[in-house]
Amino acid sequence: MRIILIGYGNVGKNFTKILSIKQMEIIKEYGLKPKIIAIIDKGGISTGKNSITIFTEINDLNKKIKELHDFNSFKAISYKEKIGMIQIINPIFIESPGWVAKIAEALASRNINIIEVTTSKAAINVFIDEDKIEEALGLIKKSLISN
Fold it and tell me: What is the pLDDT of residue 107?
């Protein structure tokens, strides 16, 4: 059973605790092996074959890391502070290829590293170092207008 949590407030946190405690019972009684594959919070999310990336604002980082470790479903947890997101939305993205490449090329030309990119139909979300947001925004606008 693959689970995606939407929100990681009190309900989400308590659900993960209960799931962790009752996991063996669920497997034994129902033949289901619950596995959280994604957590969506207000900041954003990305999933890979063997990874989950959560972009969120965390007030107490050490507490959050401990909570995730206590869940016993992750091999490793890492974090990076001061990540910013630029979201570009345009219906043209749906039917025409190459927009992510144009954005990546513009940022690479000024040595701005892309930490993560997520896409969905008409939206492209680019996660970069927070202190590069303004410069990146200008580069992205310029690259999209010129094409």
Answer: 97
Residues 92 and 118 grouped into a single domain: yes
Segments in the chain below pLDDT 70: 6, 37-52, 55, 71-74, 147
| Same domain flag for 53 and 90 | no
CB atoms under 10 Å from CB of 54, counted, come to 19
Q: d(Cα 136, Cα 23) in Å, to the nearest integer?
A: 44
Contact indicator for 84, 126 with CB cutoff of 8 Å: no
Q: What is the pLDDT of residue 49?
A: 64
Total-model pTM: 0.63
d(CA 2, CA 117) in angstroms, rounded, equals 23
The angle that helices 10-30 and 61-70 make with each other, rounded to 10 degrees, is 10
Domain around 100: 83-145
Q: Is 65 found in the same domain as 123?
A: no
